[in-house]
Specification:
There is one protein chain. The chain is of the alpha/beta class. Helices cover 36% and strands 26% of the residues. The chain contains 9 helices and 10 strands. Strands 6-7-8-3-9-10 form a 6-stranded mixed beta sheet, with helices on both faces. The chain has a 4-stranded antiparallel beta sheet with strand order 2-1-4-5, with helices on one face. Helix 3 packs parallel to helix 5, helix 4 packs across helix 5 and helix 8 packs across helix 9. Bound molecules: adenosine-5'-triphosphate. Adenosine-5'-triphosphate binds next to strand 2 and helix 1.
Length: 237
Amino acid sequence: MIEVEQLVKRYGARTALNGISFHAKQGEIVGLLGANGAGKTTTMRILTGFMPPTSGSVRLNGIDISVDPFAVRQQVGYMPERVPVYPDMTVQGFVLFWARLRGAAQPMQAVETVLAQFNLLDRRHHLVRSLSKGLRQRLGLAQALVHQPAIVILDEPTIGIDPRQVIEVREAIHALKAQHTVLFSSHILSEVEQVCDRVVILHEGRVVAEGTPAELSTRLRTKKEARLEDVYLALTQ
Ligand code: ATP
């Protein structure tokens, strides 16, 4: 579903991605784990067609993004780290706006579906500016999912929200796997361990490990109880 091969991105003299490769199968939740500056956002921006790579290839649902970027965008729902909301729109108006932009066949019905999915129906007539940060993240998820994309890409979806809302957003992400392939980034180890089927660890623009949380833990099982945390620290020293 997601195939990334030898992706390189240079910003002038700075190499942000240095030949990364990874994949995600249909219905998997894959976590991109890495410290600040590891290259997570750059990877996601390339996958969503926001900017081209310097070299390398990306195929989403079998389509090469360099060959047909518009077709790829139909397949992808993207929630950036800071959800670009319009504060003076209502919740319903904002999601409807995105449904129409993305060419949903029955936009109002699509809006109803995602507002119900993310528990926003009772706020549908509220102004976006009145929402808490956690509710805005759920609105971001609704916006990303309104055209029912096969692939959902979420950049640090739980950053800056309180613990209860973190749990709600994680549960919402987990529920997506029934119908979507999910790639999400985080630098919170426990979150990745809880939510993901597989983890790709990025460090300074390279993939330093890939596998299930359990596989990654056993790779370093010199001690009996190696945790993902131990693996991460060892690989990113
Ligand atoms: P964070 O968790 O802080 O968002 P990240 O893993 O998402 O980090 P990126 O934002 O992809 O990392 O950045 C990777 C590297 O590329 C960093 O060294 C960053 O400074 C650099 N970089 C990112 N965007 C640009 C840009 N527009 N111009 C120049 N350098 C950039």
